[in-house]
Each structure stands twice: as C-alpha cells, then as structure tokens.
Amino acid sequence: MFGYFLTRLGMFIPTFLGVTLISFMFIRVLPGDPIIVMAGERGMTEERYQEMVEKLGFDKPVLQQYWDYLVGVLHGDLGESFVTKKPVWDEFFALFPATLELSICAMIFAVALGLPAGVIAAVNRGKFFDRALMSSALVGYSMPIFWWALLLIIVFSGNLGWTPVSGRIDLLYYFPSVTGFMLIDSLLSGQAGAFGSAVRHLILPTIVLGTIPLAVIARQTRSAMLEVLGEDYIRTARAKGLSPSRINGLHALRNALIPVITVIGLSVGTLLAGAILTETIFSWPGIGKWMVDSIFRRDYPVVQGGLLMIAVIVMLVNLLVDVLYGIINPKIRRR
Amino acid sequence: MSLLDIRNLTVEFATASGKFRAVDGVDLSVDKGELMAIVGESGSGKSVSMLALMGLLPWTATITADQLSFEGIDLTKISARDRRKIIGKDIAMIFQEPMSSLNPCFTVGFQIKEALRIHLGLNRKERHERAIELFDQVGIPAPESRLNTFPHQMSGGMNQRVMIAMAIACKPKLLIADEPTTALDVTIQAQILDLLLRLRDEQGMGLVLITHDMGVVAETAERVQVQYAGQKVEEQPVKDLFRTPRHPYTVALLNALPERATSKLLPTIPGVVPGQFDRPKGCLFSPRCQYADDLCRSLPPTPHSAEFGKARCHYVEKIIAGELA
Amino acid sequence: MAELSAIPPKTEDRPSALREFWYYFSENRGAVMGLWVFAAFVFCAAFAPLLAPYDPTEQFREHILQPPAWQEGGSWAFPLGTDPLGRDMLSRLIMGSRYSFFVGIVVVCVAVTGGVIIGLLSGFAPKWIDTMIMRVMDIILSFPSLLLALVLVAILGPSLTNAMIAIAIVFQPHYVRLTRASVLSERQKDYVTSARVAGASKARLMFKTVLPNCLAPIIVQAALSFSTAILDAAALGFLGMGAQPPTPEWGTMLAEAREFILRAWWVVTFPGLAILVTVLAINLMGDGLRDALDPKLKRS
C-alpha cells in the first residue's frame, strides 16, 4: 500500500512540473506584448514600461524566469490581477468555495441517483426499466448543458417562477462569509429564510452541472455491474444459494464500485469544465465565471493562475482517487 | 430412488445466428455415495448440463427436461426461493478456475462463513469454529490466519481447497466437481483428487466428477458417462468401460492415453467437436470417426441397451466383435 | 475460422464478418435510428444551400422575432420563426449543420491520426520514450478539456478554426492512451510474436500486424468524440470563443438568443434541440458500434 502510494506520488511530481511549465508558457506565447495589453487604451511611458518588464522578470533568461515562477507558485505567489491589482492566489481562494459548494452538490446529486439507477438497470437487463433508464442516460450524456440550463430557466424560473435565475442568495440577505459555503453560512447567520433562499438558488445549477456526471455514472455502473455479473465468483455466489439481493448488492456491487469510483474521480475534470458554463449562465460567483470573465478582460495573470490551480485540483483529486482505489481494491492494498 | 435423476435434459442457447444446442437429450442418475464421472472433450456439454441442474446458466439458455429431480423433488417445478434452499446446501459445486471463482473483494473467511450463516443459521462463534474445522478438513495449514486472507494472496491449489471447504460447508448430499484439477499443477491435482475421494467416503455424499482426463477417471470413478457434442454416447461401470469400450469415440479416447500407446507417436482424434455451424446431419461423431460410412453420415444413431453401454452407434455389435477395431 | 469450415458436412454457414457486424449493429434499434438521423444530418450539411429557403444572414426587418408557423402570429414563410434580427431560423439551422459536421470531421481526423501514430510509437518505443509520452499526455489530461480549449482559443484568438484546433489538441491524449493500451495488450499475443519471428519489419509489425487489431476501440472512441467535438465547439461558440456572429453556428446562435429566452422560446429551443438530436444520434450510433465491435459484450 505504501509503495503503491509512493509510485503514485512519484508520477504526480513530473506532471505537476509539466502543468506549471504549460501555465508558465501561456503568458509568453500570447500574440502581442502582455504589458502593452495591460496598459490598455491609455498607453504607458517608456519608463513605466521598463519598470513593468523588470517587475514581471521579462528581462531575465527564460530558464531563470521559469525558476522564479516555480518558486513563486510554491510560495503561493501567482502574480497580480491586471484588473483588480489583487493577488491571484487570494482571489482564487475567495471564489473557490462557491465552485466547491456547487460541485459537491452536483456530485451528490449525480451519485445518489446514478449509482442505484445503474444497479437496477443492470439487474433488470433488457427489460423496460433498463431501456427507459439507459435512453434517458444517453440523452443526459448528449445534452448541451448550456442549452439545458436555458430550458430549465424558461420552465422553472420563467413559467413557474419557482427558482431564481442567478446568484447564490437573494440580495436582501446579508451576512459575513464564515466558511464560504452559502448553505452553511446562511444557517449560521440565523436569518429567517436565508437558508431556503440559498437552497433555491442552488437547485437549478446543481441539476445542470450534475446532469452529465449523473448520466456517466449510471451508464458506467450498469456496464460494470453487467461485467461483474458475468464473473466466475458471481456464479460461485449463486451456487452457494445466496439471494439475488445479496449477490447483486454485496458481491457484485462491491466489485463494480472499483471502476465506478474511478469514473467518479475522472468526472471532477468534467465537473470543473461544466462549472465554466454553468457559472456563466447562472452568474454564480465561482472560479468558472472568474476564468471566463478574465479571458474576456485579457487579465492574463488570472487566466494563468486559474489554469494552474484548476489543473492542480484535478491532479490532486486524481491522486486521491488512486489512493481510494487502492483502499477499495484489495488486490492493490495488500501488495 | 436415486439421489439425482436427470432424464432427457436439453439446453439451448440463443445466439446471434439462431439456437445452439449445447446439451442434447442427456440422462444421468447418481446414487447416494456414488462417484460418477462425466468425460468428454471441451465443448461436449458436460459442464453445461450440471450448470443447468444448479440453475447457473445465463438468461440466454433454455432448459427442458422430462425429469430433473433431486431426492424426488423436481427442481424445475419449485420456486426460485425453495431452490436456493437446496442449492448450496444439499447440492454443491466446485469449478475449474479456483482463482477467479472466489470473490476478490472479500476474505476467504467471509465467503465461507456466509454460506454457514445463510443455510445453517450458525452464530458468529459457531461459524468461526466451523470454518476453521473445514479448513483443517481440506488440509489448509494455519486455518485461523488463513481465514483473513484474500483469494489473490493464495495459490491456485489453496484456493481450490477453499472452494472445496465452501462446497462441503453445509454437508451436501451431492457434490459436483467441474474439472476441479484442470487449472492446477500436476502434483496438486493428485492431492485435490485424493481430498475429494476422502471427503466422499467421510460424508457419504454423491460425487459427480466432470473431467476430460481418462486417467483421472480410471483412478477414481465407479461409473462413467461419455459425452460428445452435447449427447451421451456411452455409459458403463469404469472397469467395463476400460475393458470393453462400446462407442468408437470412447475407443479413440482410450487409445489416446499415453499408458496405452503402442507406438512412439501418440494416437490422436483428428478434428474438433462440431460447433454451431458445422453440426453434421447423421451421427455427430461421424466426421471424425474412422469407421463412419454413409449410414453414419445420414442417419443419427439411437442409444443401445445398457448391455451395450447405451452406446449411440450404428455398429456397436461389430465393435464388440472386434470386426472394426 | 477457415480451418473449421474445411470439415465436410456442415449445415449452416458461419456469417461473414461484415454480415455479423451488421447483424449485431442492426439488433440495436437505437443505433439504427441514430444512423438514420446522422444520415439526415450529413445530407443537410452536404446540400445546405439547396435546402435552406433563405440566405441565413438575410435580415427580414419587418419579421423580427416572428414565432413558428403553428403558433399565433407565425407564417409558413418562416416555418420555425425568425430571430431578433429577422433572419429565418430554419435556414440558419440548416446552414448550422455544416459547421457542426465540419467541426466533427476535422477534429476526429486530426485527433485520431495524431493520437494513433503517437500511441503506436509509444507502444513500440523504448521504455523511457514511452514514459515521457505518457507523462505529457497526463499533463494535457490534467486540464479540463473545455478550459484548455478556452485558453487555447484565448491565445489563438476566437474563431471556429482555432476552436477546432484547440479541441483536436485536447482530444489527442485519449487516442494516444487508447492506442497504446491496445498495442501493449496485442503485442503479447502469439500472432505478433510469430510475425516477428517470421521477420516482419518494425513498421510492418506496427501498422499491418498490430494496428488492425486495435481499431475497434479507436473507431468507437472516434464516433463518441465526434459528438463531444460538436458539443465543445457549440459550448465555445456559446461563450463567444468559437464561431463569431453572424455565422449560423448552433452554439453561437444560442449565445445571441440568450437575452430573449423569456420572450421568444423558439430562438433558444431550436438550436439547442438541433445540437441535442445530432449529438444523441451520434452517441446512439457509437453505442451500437461498440456493441457490434466489442466481442466481450457479445452474447455467446
């Protein structure tokens, strides 16, 4: 187990270096001079330009620049936003809880529905329920979620008026951010109705963001279950005279979970990509919207820093999944 | 009344290109404490007929039988729930691949105790003691610590012992062993066979041994049934079978034994068992039979009487008379 | 299987590979339906200028935001209504199929060609090159695909071509991994050993002996990434980073229509529906392909 963990960690470090290299290169392969871009319409004096070149380290050799960048990254220095002049690191962590809250809710939504659906479909293979479920899963999987969001807004916000269209909470509530998670903060604030408002703001973004992971998990659970159900040890379990619920729910599911957990881990990337669209549509003040806005504003340090941070998060989650995989798969655990 | 009585069992699989008949009108009866061997090449339907008995075939299989009874209870007529009370308790089965037949996610102790809890309702302590006793019985050293290991941490031979311990956990009346030694090393093979024979004597259970190894049959069985392409082609007590085989297929199988080789080259049976797309019209063995003539190729033979080993051959008398052999 | 059929009396013929493929494929009704819809989509894309009733950029100023024909205020002159600039929705949708099809084809061709070649090299190359290639692929895969595509477009400048390049780069690692994995498992098989023993050159071994046996999963993946490419391109268009207005690309159309969602449902509904139906059809087909090509899932 420990050796396995070390191997995974060993793979993490070169990948991390590669990711920093890509984000380092990003600002340098841009067409045009980023300093001029930053100056915008106003332009800048020669003196100020030189000052900026020095500040950004563009006058040093490239390798030196990369080394400085890497050291900065490891110290939590991702540069300053061109627009707000605030450190990118601080901005990122101010906005990250919003994305995390949305992602966790979407993941819970996807797993809570997708896992049982996949198991039931596999056990009832070929029957009506299976076919109906798998057809819906395929529709969900094929869904352009930005359109799906608009449709849900038309129906639930426009026609029915049940859910708000944007933001995390109604403007009439105000309380300081404690954890950054609106659901928890609204409860802590003790204001009547605040929690309900936060929940109502969360529903549509959660559904939109959770749709594709839901479809993927349902499909993967079904196919993993079908594969496992054909294994010899399932035949042994049946030969022991165990009940179908015990065979499916214990002997088969335990094995089927191994690939499913991997897929759940891998959909964190999908989730963050989806967050870009979902947050933009619902004006959700998270990382995704921040990135899109920064790309439009040509706020390159933010794009650079955000790109790196998101990649690192995906890598950390993958590492976590690998470790978890080692724990639930005894073949690796006891090696 | 025999322990197990199967009459005219037929199993068909639905495949992309129509139905495939894997078992074709097979009869089988096993008495209490008897050791019955079923012999045949791969694809002869030996395993399928036993899986059908256990109810372990996939949903693509259709099973029909005039009779499929265990201790007088017709297994085709009772509910799945009642069937599960018999399967795993009174009838148990062990399989060819010990490594893949145990669930990799659970310890072997869990897997053996599970059956004890469900069928016998033993409590935690009783289960633990019984599991140790069983491991001891099948010759697993240090049973106490072995209970906590996972299948992949043990050798194939050890896993097969676990499978056997699991199968005999509830003292079954009938044990079906489907090529229990094929996947194992030669030295282990003999140990496992000895173990099975010893357990049969100790517990007085019926034993059906499915194998393709005539040598194993000679050493162990009392009665032998030879299957070819889903049909039973011959059935005899083991001594008679080896002395006077009735069916040309049996003759060929016996001739292929190294012990019986007369020349330096081992005789083989040319060709393979017919599959779904090359099933002959007449006798199923005719394409590979050295005696086959036009009659064999056009008309399927019917089984003879027990006196002639129930052989499915047009020319049984001639084979006995030695005219053909 | 040729040896088997040499044994004389036989009653049934083993079906040919293609017939067997079609048998399994056509058994899946969804896949056949998907195939038909996809064929209609390709037809639309091929003959778009002939099928579209109007020029997709022509603005009918007196018919702004006209609802579809079956709704009050609609007319059959504009069967699916008009957009905020008075352009015919149907014509724009039909022309839009061209862009989506084009995106799918280009992305899949580029990603498959590059990915398969790199994957083959990786599978046959010495260990250190293999490790290096795989690490690079891991790095690319660490970025969520849409985000990386978005950033690449931000570097290259927003346009449909750049969106395609970005998506193709992002898809590449999947093919590399897939090809390498099948190469590694195929390489150990006896037929490859025998080909090597027979003196086949490395190139022949790679492309003639091993590659054909790795194709099944690649074909399935190609079908699936065709649809993902369409989705991603539409998403980029929706974010304003793909095709630029007035191009009648479906995602771009949606972006233009966003502010009208509560007033004119049709300008939002139809482009999205077009994306969904196309992507769904391709995915249905992909599922059918996988079932037909993957022997593991075949019924025995």
From TrEMBL, chain A:
CDD domains, per the entry: TM_PBP2 (cd06261)
Q: Where in or outside the cell?
A: Cell membrane
UniProt keyword list: Cell membrane, Membrane, Transmembrane, Transmembrane helix, Transport
Membrane topology, record value = Multi-pass membrane protein
The portions of this protein that span the membrane are: 12-30, 92-121, 141-162, 171-192, 198-218, 256-282, 302-328
* Signal peptide range in chain numbering: none
Gene3D superfamilies for this protein: MetI-like
Annotated ABC transmembrane type-1 domain ranges read 96-325
Q: Which domain of life does the UniProt lineage start with? A: Bacteria
Q: Pfam families given for it? A: BPD_transp_1 (PF00528), BPD_transp_1_N (PF19300)
Protein family (similarity comment): Belongs to the binding-protein-dependent transport system permease family.
* Name of the protein this chain belongs to: Dipeptide transport system permease protein DppB
TrEMBL record, chain B:
Example GO molecular function: ATP hydrolysis activity
The main location is membrane
Q: How does it sit in the membrane?
A: Peripheral membrane protein
- Where the record annotates domain ABC transporter, the positions are 6-254
Write down the superkingdom of origin: Bacteria
> What CDD domains does UniProt report for this protein, alphabetically?
ABC_NikE_OppD_transporters
| Record bears the keyword Membrane | yes
What GO biological process terms are annotated to this protein in UniProt?
peptide transport; transmembrane transport
Q: Which UniProt keywords apply?
A: ATP-binding, Cell membrane, Membrane, Nucleotide-binding, Transport
Q: What's in the GO CC field?
A: plasma membrane
User: Does the entry feature the keyword Lipid biosynthesis, yes or no?
Assistant: no
What SMART domains would the database entry show?
AAA (SM00382)
Q: Where in the cell is it found?
A: Cell inner membrane
Q: Which PANTHER family match?
A: DIPEPTIDE TRANSPORT ATP-BINDING PROTEIN DPPD, OLIGOPEPTIDE TRANSPORT ATP-BINDING PROTEIN APPD
Question: What name appears for this protein in its UniProt entry?
Answer: Stage 0 sporulation protein KD
UniProtKB/TrEMBL annotation, chain C:
Biological process (GO) annotations held by this record are: protein transport
The reply to whether Cell wall biogenesis/degradation figures as a keyword in the UniProt entry is no
> Please, which domain of life does this record's source organism belong to?
Bacteria
**Where does it localize?**
Cell membrane
Q: How does it sit in the membrane?
A: Multi-pass membrane protein
A molecular function GO annotation:
dipeptide transmembrane transporter activity
Q: Does the keyword Repeat apply?
A: no
Which cellular components does GO assign to this protein?
plasma membrane
What sequence ranges are listed for the domain ABC transmembrane type-1?
Answer: 97-286
Q: Write down the Gene3D superfamilies for this protein, in alphabetical order.
A: MetI-like (1.10.3720.10)
Q: Where would you find the membrane-spanning parts of this chain?
A: 31-52, 99-125, 145-171, 214-240, 260-282
Name listed for the protein in its UniProt record: Dipeptide transport system permease protein DppC
Q: Which gene encodes it?
A: dppC_1
